[in-house]
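Lecture notes, unit on protein representations.

Consider one protein chain, 709 amino acids long.
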Amino acid sequence: MPIHTLDNNYWVLETDHTAYALGVNTAGALVHAYWGERLPVPTDYPAAPDAIFHASFTGAGHMWPEEYVGLTGLKYVEPALSVSFADGVRDLVLQVVGGAVAGDTLVVTLRDAHYPLRVELHYRAHAAHDLIERWAVVHNDGAPITLERVFSAQWQVPIGRSYRLSYLSGRWIDEFQLHRQPLSPGVFVRESRRITTSHHASPWFALDDHAGETHGEVWFGALAWSGNWKLAAEVTDFGRTRVSLGLNDWDFAWRLGAGERFTTPACLGGYTQDGFGAASRRLHAFVRDNVLPHGRSPHKVLYNSWEATTFSVDVESQSKLAELAAEMGVELFVMDDGWFQGRNSDDAGLGDWWPDPKKFPDGLTPLIARVNALGMDFGLWLEPEMVNPNSDLYRAHPDWVIHFPTRARTESRNQLILNLARADVQNYLITTIDKLLSDHNITFIKWDMNRNVSEPGWPAAGDRQREIWVRYVEGLYRVWGTLRERHPNVVWQSCSGGGGRADLGILRLADQVWVSDNTDALSRLNIQHGYSQMLPADTMEAWVTDINAGRISLDFRFHVAMQGVLGVGGNLLHWSPAERAKAARFVAQYKEIRPIVQNGELYRLIEPSDSSPYVVTQYVNIARSEAVIFAFRRIGGGADAMLDGYHAIDPSQPAALKLQGLDPDARYKITGQGAARSGLAWMRAGLTVALGHQESKILRVRRVDDSGS
């Protein structure tokens, strides 16, 4: 049984290897007791902690590790919940009512001491993945209440340590940059205020005190939400560290009427003793098994026509590209922007989702038939949440966009954002896109979003306009979810100018993510490394394009992209026959290793850093019978390895590369590495991979029998 109840007021959630304990202390507060390695018996876990008196300036409630802090009293820590009652009172006194266990889920109910407000804290144990899922449900049993902050979870870690916070930051074309920062007393905030997850930060964290990729304790978590979010990492002056994660309270207010309830997004948390790599692998497995619409189904090699034709699309241009893509072994042909009504540049057409009759006088069917005849599936680009002022949709419904009536409507990329909080906007998109998918054999949709919010007004909502931040995302989920239910075989890609919307919420709808508009292979090594901290390779779409083709070899570009879901986006009309033939060999090789890359376990053997020119990743299949190693060298040797007339150590000769994840007792043979050796030998003694300037290699690892075959 994954959840144990002791004395009716103490609960232990156990997974295969970890445990999470909470209980009611002597003051009647729900407090955190333990999060770490699973102990032999339920009574081994520490008691619910109390706090000693410090001074009149600080109450005991400030000092104990409360599971879900309400804004009240002598507590000056970050609250998880703050409200305003109808009579103007803003003080929240939550008292424990009790807890109930049903299967893998614990629900602890809190109630305000005076007002008819209830809070249900949900805890679900995902035993096989060693993760705890948390969310909160706020019930109003009386007069209207205004929610001003409502987080999903507050994660407490052991007291008295000096923690380091790992987080992801960035911007457009520079997403998912990994940072590790020591925490000091105070509050460190990461957030999005952009109505999407954003390029600038990701709702993921990890805490450690002296952990590495393969060793040490790590506490980590991620939020399943695709809009504004907030993470507050707090260290108190009394040595406690906690991470609060949930909806952003910036410009947020939610009126909760009598009999209504508000449910927060879910938040996942986990613990491991085996470093950052193990933390990532647990999230990866959970996403594949519990989140993705099509689970562990293989994702096809695609070609996208954007860089070749931009807006100048028609049957002839796309057919020529499709023929070349098919010769290379591509399985999915995706026509990007420019195909719909009036779309010749980015200043017109968004919202009018039907084929442009000048470009496609017979509709899309002839092109789709041609692509299918070549043995490929057909995919299409859409940007459903956007509208150009120069469109039939906007001329008919100028009130459908997010706006303030007394302010100019700021255009970005010549477009405005449709207000998906409105049911009529949702219904229009569902009807229009459903018809497009019903009338055509389309198996893949690239769902894009190329701007962030401005003037976040919703005039029809009156004094409830600040609910738009949540209702917009709920509307997005309704539109996308309805279309997915009606067209279950369609694979959806989440794109927001690259990685602007990559999170556990959107991946319940989309199977893969366009990680960045930056397709430079050297830049992608860092971007993909950061992305891999949270999300698995089978969600990471990566293209081979013509960016820096004169400086970076085709081999290197393919090897980088083959670490995720392989795509090609270069202008094939400009590729030589020799380049296309080489690309065909890479595509064939990728299809061979695809099951290992897309569904295997990732080991980051050498991480991108300023101190080493090497980046090495390893993927191991679940059976541990095969593995693939991707090795890259980013900077050169020779003259650039000289320092004051002396030769530096040749960077083309790295230290022994120690593999991971193999069966220590089995024997493995590795490409170009001589005789078979035991898994333990490859993991302890390692191997050497010699690489020249901006060179890369793929090494296959295969388990062999005692005869070496």
